[in-house]
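[stage:ingest] chain + small molecule (KG4)
[stage:ingest] validated
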Amino acid sequence: MNRKQMNKPATGWLTLGIETSCDETAVSVVEDGRKVLSSVVASQIPEHRKFGGVVPEVASRQHVETITQVIDQALVEAGKTMGDIQQVAVTYGPGLVGALLVGVAAGKALAYGRDLPLNGVNHIEGHLYANFIQSPELEPPLLALIVSGGHTHLVKMTDYGEYEVLGKTRDDAAGEAFDKVARLLELGYPGGPFIDEAAKKGNPCAVDFPRAIQEENNWDFSFSGLKSAVLNHINTEKMKGHPLQVNDVAASFQQAVVDVLVDKTIDCALHHGMSQVLLSGGVAANSQLREALGRACKSKNISFHVPDLTLCTDNGAMIACVGYYDYCLGIRSRWNLNAVASLVIGERQNKWFYPIYEELT
Ligand code: KG4
Ligand code: ZN
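[stage:predict] done
[stage:export] tokens:
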């Protein structure tokens, strides 16, 4: 296979990765793209819990308050100073625009002040690259299932920076479905971990919830019907005067999500002849999904990769990792880089990036 030309810098290259796309202020120092020297995550979950979900303006304000502390802590924990850093990578989309702008402004200020290269990074790409940190020998081509609070994507990665989206959700993201169903069951926020725990005590066959889009060679997803089916079930049980079996509903809902994610991923991998499958994003923390997809891959002789839990949810290390590989490919952001709420994976606007040059000086 013809690989894209990579111009790797001398070893020991330090990238500062900044992530503020949603409700985590996260900064990391990464060496040579895959070695994490520090990864600091300031979660805003307690702030948003009282509203039952992320409030965009609250998120932006929290990022503004904490970002410099998180940067300092990441440098201290890595045993480095800004003078040691050689590149700044920052998430510029997709996500909440006000939240993204805080990270973009901070990243620009740091890079501009020290005349360092700046790389704007796609958050979804970041989730995928979390696997490169986890598995140092991993190389494309591969198929990635990226499942988070905002996204559900099946992405074929042919080379670094080369993607083809083969499937995505038509409505709710998988994590969004977990969060909404957890709210219906009054389990708490964010819902994923609560449903995961409740499901361990429930019967996954108790309620036969729907599995959407079962057409051949169609790898899109849909979870809004499933969420409505859970609501209908809860209302019906109430009307009948039955006590709600929360653990059974959680287990049956989770089984429906996991079945669809696993079946489509395996079918897509076989159809496209992919021998490596990656799982990533916040929902990749789900114990049943990790286990079921791992087992299904094994039965088809497909190698399976999933990051540790801390690399599944939002973090700065995965952003630094993408930034490093983009840098090696000659990609550099301009100083007018801006936030893009609905950035598509693989998309790069010329107005915010320099043309790629073959020979780097
Ligand atoms: O990737 P992430 O941290 O943020 C986004 O980019 O959206 O993902 C957060 C999502 C939330 O919807 C949360 O409920 C879900 O990941 N999540 C889980 C689990 N842990 C987190 N979903 C299912 N099971 C889990 N154990
Ligand atoms: Zn994320």
